[in-house]
Amino acid sequence: MSALNTVWTVAARDLTLAGRTRDVLLATAFYVALVLLVQGFALGAPDGRSASATANLAAGVVWTALTLASAVAAGRAFSAEAEAGALEQLLLYPAPLAAVYLGKLLGVLLPLLLIGAATLPLGLGLFGVWGGEDQPPLPWLSLYGVMALGTVGLAATSTFYSSLTVNLRAREALLPALAFPLLIPLVIALVRITATLLSGGWTAEAWAWAAFLLAFNIGTLVLAAWLFPYAVEG
Questions:
Q1: Is the pLDDT of residue 172 over 80?
Q2: pLDDT value, residue 99
Q3: CB 14 within 8 A of CB 107
Q4: How far apart are CA 101 and CA 90, in angstroms?
Q5: CB–CB of 67/36 below 8 Å?
Q6: DSSP secondary structure string, 156-190?
Q7: 213/222 Cα distance (integer angstroms)
Q8: How many angstroms separate the CA atoms of 71 and 64, rounded?
Q9: What would the pLDDT profile of 136-153 be if each residue is shown by its tens digit?
Q10: Which of 39, 49, 59 is nearest to 192 (CA)?
Q11: CA distances from 189 to 13, 51, 67, 73, 192 (A)
Q12: Exposure string (b/e) for 72-91, b if CB count within 10 Å is 16 or more?
């Protein structure tokens, strides 16, 4: 079986299972909604805050919710095989194990993109960044592009660490503990570029953060695909 066929086979199987049970999608959506609701009540209405401060708060809450959601979604990436004792059979696919990782990544990424597509306007609207009569239109195309790139980085990192913790008894607790420290630079970049886009559009700072974001994603995908065989076999 070719590497590309393996990627699509693994991804299609995971997406089919997720579509039938909907447990991961519903749990992730509920988790994101809970984070947005709690943060919205905790931080209060935007009255009295500057536009820049409001943009920073909204961007931080949106990406905090999506970062936590990525751990929830990736935590189930390998659990079905592990619980059924079929992880060894998954690793016996007649294709490079990096293709199995990419297939698992797609299975995590696509539901996360759906969650992110709904989280972005909900989070920004909750903090009053858009929706008012006197507010300028937001660069939605740029914001969704950043959301897509950021979600790729979150999913790639979380899926890789899910493979590291799949055979551990406390994998639900260890996954975020291992993945989140490495995600800190990515989350900082995502918050800064989102806040900059909300405040001033594509400034020099926004382009610099976008370049970092792209480099982070490429480096993570290459390293994770390379190290995945050692992670699952170890």
A1: no
A2: 87
A3: yes
A4: 11
A5: no
A6: HHHHHHHHHHTTSTTHHHHHHHHHHHHHHHHHHHH
A7: 14
A8: 11
A9: 788 999 999 999 999 999
A10: 59
A11: 33, 19, 13, 22, 5
A12: bbbbbbbbbbeeeeebeebe
